[in-house]
Hints:
The chain has 297 residues and is α+β, with helices and mostly antiparallel strands. It has helices at residues 2-21, 254-260, 263-290, and strands at 50-56, 60-67, 87-91, 100-116, 119-129, 134-139, 143-150, 154-163, 166-178, 192-198, 203-207, 211-214, 218-222, 225-235, 250-252. The chain is built from three helices and 15 strands.
Amino acid sequence: MKTLFYVLASICILELSLCQNDTTVPITTTPEITTTTPITTTSTTTTTTTTTTTTTTSSTTTTTSTTAETTSTPGTTTPIPQGDVIFNFTVPNNSSSPCLRARFSLAFDFKYPAIINGTKLNATAYVKVNSIDEYSGECNEAFNTLEIDFNSGWSLVMNYTIQENAYELNVMRLTYKVTAEMFPDVDPKYIGSKEVQGSNLKEFAANRGNSFKCISETKIELGSEHVDFKNYQAQPFLPSDSKTGDFDTAIECTADLSGNSKLVPIIVGSALALLVILVLVAYIVGRTRQRPGYQSV
């Protein structure tokens, strides 16, 4: 009887709930009208201006910059060619059995005195080489030399030496001409031929029989100037019977290796995340199997 009473009571409560839910009060929504008033802001900016001048010639691209406190003046910019031009070299020139094989793109950073509106300033010029006039070199048991001529009177000499079966770029000499065209606003007293040299550089070192490769930018200091290499790969002191037409196994620079090592944390993190998921799945499956079933009475 008690069970029947509870059943009837439950039915009555359920009926009352259904009756209350049958009454629906409609909701009326009034659209909101928004009026937007434009806001006018007036600002005054005082700027210390950096004037940049870009001069493009057929063989080089020169970007110069000087910093001074001047009145704002609209600047004129000549578009700079995109990308780096990669040059290929074999010494002797176009030989089927070279002693040296190289390829790279080339640019230079210069510092020079400039005069703007009667004020002496320290200016910088970035010169990118877009074409070369010619190149030559010399093969020797003690050294291999590559000389590159460009920009009608400029030259870069690279001298590789070898010792105990390991080679390196040991000496580099740059000859260039300072002109008003290549070095805008240059102090007239500074115009003329210049030469800078670096010795005992110990750059691009590798064992004989390997090439040295560095896609990243490498700056080599020659006095106050810098030679910028990109996409560099070279192999001097090739064996006399080398006719493969390509480089041997490359020794990569630290900058390239550190760039590739950025993938390691990503791989490790992904592996750890997968391991956590597997542990959670195993835990859930284990709990499910341990759940007791119903026992018969």
